[in-house]
Design a protein that fits this description.
The protein has about 140 residues and is α/β, with parallel strands linked by helices. It has a domain of about 90 residues: 2-Layer Sandwich (Nucleotidyltransferase, domain 5). Helix content is about 35%, strand content about 15%. The strands form two sheets. Strands 4-3-2-5-6 form a five-stranded mixed sheet, covered by helices on one side. It has a two-stranded parallel sheet with strand order 1-7. The longest helix is centred in the N-terminal third of the chain and has 23 residues. It is elongated, with a radius of gyration of 24 Å. It starts with 17 loop residues before the first helix and ends in an 11-residue tail after the last strand. About 10% of the residues are buried.
Length: about 140
């Protein structure tokens, strides 16, 4: 049998990337937790649940509370101010995105009004903010 000889003078031909992957995953988790915390410090809303919830890069955050009051980035605004701020954001960046967080108890008409306002100002990339359902809930239980 041939024996292999390990010499300290050999050139290192491989790099162990495991520590790099570990550090990257830790940074990713920190980023995700921080982003969720920053997004949740807006207006307290009772969001409807959705199984296909996902995160979206946000430029504008439009919130509608249960009384139909509208907020832009956690600041109360009327419709004229909202339209002006949306127009200014779209002028600064043509790829402006918006997230609409509407309380589940607000009227559907109010949410449609905000969506229509965004579309009239050429902001066509928007998402509806929902809380993800517990995957072990009624669907998984067969109910």
């Amino acid at each position: 049998m041939a024996a292999t000889v390990n010499s300290d003078d050999d050139i290192i031909t491989g790099i162990n990337v495991t520590p790099l992957v570990d550090i990257t995953l830790v940074l990713l988790v920190i980023l995700m937790v921080t982003a969720s915390y920053v997004a949740s410090k807006t207006i307290p809303l009772d969001l409807p649940k959705g199984a296909t919830a996902e995160t979206t890069p946000t430029t504008l955050t439009v919130s509608i509370d249960k009384d139909g009051k509208t907020y832009l980035d956690a600041v109360p605004v009327d419709e004229a101010t909202l339209r002006g701020r949306i127009r200014a954001a779209h002028a600064a960046d043509a790829e402006t995105r918006a997230v609409i967080a509407a309380d589940g108890r607000t009227t559907h008409a109010r949410v449609v009004r905000v969506i229509d306002l965004l579309r009239r100002e050429d902001v066509t990339k928007f998402a509806i903010n929902v809380e993800p359902e517990d995957l072990a809930g009624p669907i998984a239980a067969g109910k």
